[in-house]
Design a protein that fits this description.
TIM Barrel, binds NADP nicotinamide-adenine-dinucleotide phosphate, 337 residues, two-stranded antiparallel sheet, eight-stranded parallel beta barrel, 10 strands, single chain, alpha/beta
């Protein structure tokens, strides 16, 4: 186990990042946030995880996103994050926005899944224990649950805020019609929805079909996950399948077949990125940030070099009409990834 550190964050960290307002709230989020879905589990290298988090913070990434089930094993990412917070970030809690979620299966029996008040309230208590925190900054319902009345699920989110266990609440993976109803219920309860967390990337644009406009008119922020389509929208697979990549690990969410099928498009997109003097990862992130309805882009990383590469995306978020048309031609008729 690594020794306690005397980590001191880079003094110029806030000069390296831009911050955007989250909907109509008082909260600013960095244009890039970091998620701990992968690379912080039982079998991942703890020191590498520490370095990733320190590198992110040194570059102005103040927001770390977790969920009860991130691991493997489920809960391990929160436990490891709690240890890293204690070792490296104990002087920085008030400079961090830490989020967690519940909504997918977490423990056996009828109370460890979906959207009941029973599940959400006890799950947040467990997350706080694992991370050794008194409160999270944002708590999300991770996915909609059509079997539980929306009033009950939103009531649970409202209760967490009133108990002081979450400062803000959000929704993830909700379709526009469900989200709109949820925003109304929360508003009536006196706890506004801060933010929505959907998947969004060059290949998967479902949020352009109503959700982004709804968020804008509702004053709710947006943080987009899997901006790099889990690593496909980078140059890493251009010359084969690298050892230790997510596709080689055959994650159920990213198979090597999926990567190989997409390769011709990746080669073509990489050329546009090069012409823009960007890496493909940078271009994929910039492409999301070009839209001012987006609050933050939620990346993952397996090494510090990837963070250092990805943060440069904020330097060029303008696209010409011609570039956008070329990107659209390449991704036309794409199956969402
Ligand atoms: N709400 C939800 O339902 C939901 C679902 C999924 C994710 N999320 C959140 O979103 C976060 C990000 O998701 P994601 O990990 O799928 O995001 P992503 O940014 O699309 O993919 C991250 C992966 O891309 C590769 N990568 C990152 N930067 C790179 C670079 N500069 N150059 C080359 N490769 C690079 C790495 O793959 P290798 O590991 O292969 O090196 C990394 O693990 C999660 O951690 C989680 O917090 C939420």
């Amino acid at each position: 186990m690594a020794k306690n550190s005397n980590y001191v964050a880079a003094e110029n960290r806030y000069e390296k990042m831009h911050y955007r307002r989250t909907g109509n709230s008082g909260l600013l989020l960095p244009e890039l946030s970091l998620g701990l879905w992968h690379n912080f589990g039982d079998n991942d290298n703890f020191k590498n995880g520490r370095n990733i988090l320190k590198c992110a913070f040194d570059n102005g990434i103040t927001h770390f996103d977790l969920a009860n089930n991130y691991g493997p094993s489920p809960g391990a990412a929160e436990e490891n994050f709690g240890k890293i917070l204690k070792k490296d970030f104990k002087n920085y809690r008030d400079e961090l926005i830490i989020s967690s979620k519940a909504g997918y299966g977490m423990w056996p029996g009828p109370y460890g899944d979906n959207g009941s008040k029973k599940y959400l309230i006890s799950s947040l208590d467990q997350s706080l224990q694992r991370m050794n925190l008194e409160y999270v900054d944002i708590f999300y319902h991770h996915r909609p649950d059509p079997e539980t009345p929306l009033e009950e699920t939103m009531g649970a989110l409202d209760l967490m805020v009133k108990q002081g266990k979450a400062l803000y609440v959000g929704l993830s993976n909700y379709q526009p019609s469900e989200a709109e109803k949820a925003f109304e219920i929360l508003k009536d309860l006196g706890t506004r929805c801060l933010i929505h967390q959907p998947k969004y990337n060059i290949f998967d644009r479902w949020i352009e079909d109503g959700l982004l406009n709804l968020l804008k008119i509702s004053g709710v922020g947006s943080i987009c996950f899997s901006p790099l389509a889990q690593g496909i929208l980078t140059d890493k697979y251009l010359s084969g399948l690298p050892k230790n990549s997510r596709a080689i690990k055959e994650s159920p969410f990213l198979t090597s077949n999926k990567v190989l099928e997409t390769l011709p498009k990746i080669i073509a997109l990489n050329k546009i990125a090069k012409d823009r003097n960007q890496t493909l990862a940078q271009m994929a992130i910039s492409w999301i940030l070009k839209d001012n309805r987006i609050t933050s882009v939620l990346i993952g990383a397996s090494k510090t070099e990837q963070i250092l590469d990805s943060v440069k995306a904020i330097e060029n978020t303008q696209f010409s009409e011609e570039e956008l048309n070329k990107i659209n031609e390449i991704t036309h008729n794409n199956k969402p990834l």
